[in-house]
Amino acid sequence: MNRTTKYKLCQFEASDQVQRTDFNEDNAKIDAALSGHDSSLGSLSSKITSLTSTVNGKASQSALNTLKNQVAKLGNCRIEALTYTGTGRHGTANPTQVTFSARPAFFIIHGLAQFIIGPSPVNKLITTLYNGPVYCDCSWSGNRLSFWGTDADTQLNHNGTVYTVIALYAQDK
């Protein structure tokens, strides 16, 4: 199994045996990285509030430069969180659809004991179930992702289950 360069996340080869512990380890790394961003954004928010007060009192060029530098440190990622409630329907005639605010660079869909992770665009998604990974087909139309599987669990569309969608958008383009 290969690992990504920056965060050492799993990059499975076709011959690798996928383990739930690998996904749990990756999720912990992603959670820690996002938590660090939360702290940075909270700190930056208070600094922006302070600078806004300065700007309202006729900002100096120095204050504007400071604000510009702090905003530049925000990074290149915007995060969006969505939810949907499963209907129990599945298959090509009943795809699960998620509409994003824009086409994400990467997304995670989570519910019950399974989740889907995927870069955009792709035509297959990996659904991780309690007994290992399963592939489901997908398609994109603008910002809308449609995906379908052989049953409601594979398709992440179990009746009444609330699914969480986390989307990451590149902001440096």
Give an overview of the whole structure.
By secondary structure, this protein is of the alpha+beta class. The protein folds into two domains: 2-72, no CATH class; 77-170. Helices cover 28% and strands 34% of the residues. It has helices at 20-56, 61-72; strands at residues 2-3, 10-11, 77-85, 96-99, 106-111, 114-119, 124-129, 132-141, 144-148, 162-170. The longest helix is centred in the N-terminal third of the chain and has 37 residues, at 20-56. It is elongated, with a radius of gyration of 20 Å.
Question: What percent of residues adopt helix (DSSP H or I)?
Answer: 25-40%
Structural domain tally: 2
Count the E strands: 10
Q: What's the average pLDDT?
A: 80
What multimeric state do the chains show? Answer: single chain
Strand order of the largest sheet: 3-10-5-6-7-8-9-4
Keywords:
single chain; 173 residues; alpha+beta; 2 domains; eight-stranded antiparallel beta sheet; two-stranded antiparallel ribbon; 2 helices; 10 strands; 28% helix; 34% strand; elongated
